[in-house]
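Quick one - inputs below.
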Amino acid sequence: MLRLHDTLTRTDKEVRPLDGKTLRFYCCGPTVYGPAHIGNFRTFVAQDVFRRVVEASGTPTLHVRNLTDVDDKTIRDSQKAGQSLTDFTEFWTTKFHADCAALNTLAPHIEPSAVKHIPHQIAMIEKLIARGHAYAAPDGSVYFRVSSFKDYGKLSHLEDRELRLGASEAASATDSDEYTKDSLTDFALWKARKPEDGPNFWPSPWGEGRPGWHLECSAMILEYLGEDFDLHSGGVDLIFPHHENEIAQSCCSTHGHFAAHWFHIAHLMVDGGKMSKSLGNLYTLEDLKARGYTASEVRYVLISGHYSAPLNFTMHSLDSARQALQKLSKTEHSLRTKAGATQPPSRDEVLKHGTAGIFADAWSTLLKDLNVPGALGGIFSKIKEADQTATDAATAKTNWLSLWFMLEAMGITLPLPESEVVADVPAEIQALAQQRWDAKAAKDWATADALRKQLEADGWLIKDSKEGFTVVKK
Ligand code: AMP
Ligand code: ZN
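Output:
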């Protein structure tokens, strides 16, 4: 059973479904106005590992993740692009899905969008007004009355002193963070139509306008997970005010307790600062692919630091990931061959027949607050033994499935081992590379150099090791 730190109680708690059957959880999804950066993906990949570990432990999940397809940024940038909000956000949603697939994250079971749930949001506001938790301003905007909810600030452990701060003071104190632009006190549930919204407004009992950003998650959670559900997640920047506001809206409009568990992921950093679009220090998956790295290497880097600590991103970490994946791939290939299999097993096969087996220590490390770096260390300390003890096909198969059980739980995909890559190299290129190796062995450096340059000009790189060489595509 997985134990995971809970932001609200600040304790590690067992992750157990409230209904005893399915773990129902919600993740705040992307704002679809540009490519998600790998900081965003640190959060989405950590949530994916969470889901995989729960499922590998034998508990099915119901995973809901929204798409924020209407807010200040989507409206602003769709207009800049001269596109309708729908065309614009659909384009970026497709790109987001492609990146998620490349990073091997499991698609959520339900992916509701804010625009498609406007009536749900209006209904929630009506309830909040009826219960005295919200009020309409003269311009047709509607605000949540923070003073009406005594538990406001519990998740982020705000002190009373901070809650008493006036709106203007609070706004200027937190101005640099784009998620904190709503004031610390009352926040918007409905924003009255403004000229710069263009055609993006909807009718409501308070006039034309659009929902405030925080509201969509509360409304969609109620629709798809009900009043009480197992776990809610996002990056740490969402704790305040976004999740605090979600709790207020939901608890005041239902009789539920909202999420039983809060899972927040620390930031991916670059040069000591949060990777973010507004700071302009971001990398996308595309940027890294253009530098020759694979999505599998990016995923490995993103999971290789514990989710609760900030992780500094460097190109060097991608090189280390490449080496680690090669090492895993070599063992996997050896076990696979000994087990008499030709293809990696399917996810279903692994979850049905695999157990952690020889990697049991690594698995129990993973179950302690999703300790991926610890689990990876545990795997590396055992791979040699896993291969050496596989002296018959049955043991090889057991160890092979155990390795896959662990890889599957972390969503790691493997490259072909370098020895395999050689097999895809055209015969004439392989022959030239062999000639170069022979020239090198004969200390004929000039010939060896010339052949290497010729191969490079043809688009091939040679990697030497003590035992020999491998040829890879440039
Ligand atoms: P957004 O698309 O901006 O709404 O963000 C999507 C998710 O990415 C949210 O859960 C954010 O908390 C998370 N996020 C944003 N920046 C980072 C970062 N640098 N590192 C980790 N997660 C982040
Ligand atoms: Zn949310």
